[in-house]
Amino acid sequence: MNKKLFVLVVDDNQADAEHNIKLLRSAGYDISYQRVETADQMREALDYEPWDLILSEYSMAVFTVQNAFEIFQAHGADIPFIVISGAIGEVKAVQLIKAGVHDYLLKANMTRFIPVVERELQQAHNRRELINVSSRLTFIEEIHKSYVENAPDGVFITDLSGNYIEVNKAACRITGYSKDELLTMCVKDLVPEDLKEVVSHELRGLMKSGSITGDFQVKRKDGLIRWFAVDAIQVSQNQFLGFTKDITDQKQANLEVLKAREELQQLNRYLVDARENERGKVAMEIHDELGQALTAIKIDLNWVLEHISDSAKSFQKVSRIIEMTDDTIRKVQKISSELRPGLLDDLGLATAIEWYCGEFEQRTGIKCQLAIEDVTNADEQVNLSLFRIFQEAMTNVVRHSQAKTVNIKLVYAPTGINMIIEDDGIGLSQEKVKCGKSMGLIGMRERANQINGTVEFSKSARTGTKIVTFIPFQPQIVN
Asked: How much is the pTM?
């Protein structure tokens, strides 16, 4: 064992004191001891050393055990006090135990000596630990109480019915009620009348799950309706601990942002629709009015060419004018198609993409590889939005990608349309995708968003850029 033990021996017989110390050492204790036999010696010893054990002789000539025990009690130390006697009556023994002596032993029967010492030492240790734990708990409780009371957010404790058991200052401040008022109220007393059933449902869910998190409208004492964020958890069989704070200003700000975003989206949809309508109108006027006028000019020039009888120079000049008219007609057709391809309205998205890719290859030299499906009953707005996204993507290929080849896939499935555009160029950085400053990318996302679709930008397997557009709908695929 070899445990250090400081023992105070109250005995006027040196031999008896050393005998008891010898027994302790034989039990494995490392003993340091002092023997006293007067009141002054005992008081001085108690003040000088932190003793672990006191052994007192019962029968002493001058300094009695009663005197020793009174000094011990006056000192107030929690130390095992064991009395050892040659002969002690049962009445005396009972009186000693009642007075507070921890145990007594007969010199004729010391077999209990070591077990009694070990027991009393252990109990004294347990008492000290209990006092330490109790002190720490008291300290922690005081800190916790101070924190709860001065916390910036509302803190409350309720029973299973939602009745307030405890609230802090912040809870009183944000509700407008005093502490005494809240402790006579229930959670539902703070809820507007039209929301009581909703809150009752949430409370039932709290009792089932043991926790709840959410935003709720609360009616303050002054009648104002405010938004409170609430987090509550069950902390015992019949109590809930909750935290709450007023988030009305944050809620209002969020609502204003959402409203502004919705208004912006509505404005953007209006501008996009207006732009498309104007494009269609301009394309039709160019095709019908200007195209017809140029065609008429060409016919008349051909008539003049057939009936001209002047020199070869005149013939050459008219021929040149006809060539210029043909070139102008082709340019008008090109401008009209780019503004609003007639093929898109007449023959569908797939045909319009094929035509555009043909023109794109001739104009840029970039190869287009197509794998596209067509459907006859696709929504006109879906076709138009997908075509505009496709146009913007192909424009970016020319401007930024340095690609040699572009793969275009158009796949119709029961869940919607997938359009995948993938090039073998230098790629699009994620910084540019996330920065929110590229009007082309923003426009593509907004086009898709208007028809409940999505556009995703990533690096392709061919090191270039991959753009995946998905528009959900339920088409009927034509084989």
From this structure: 0.39
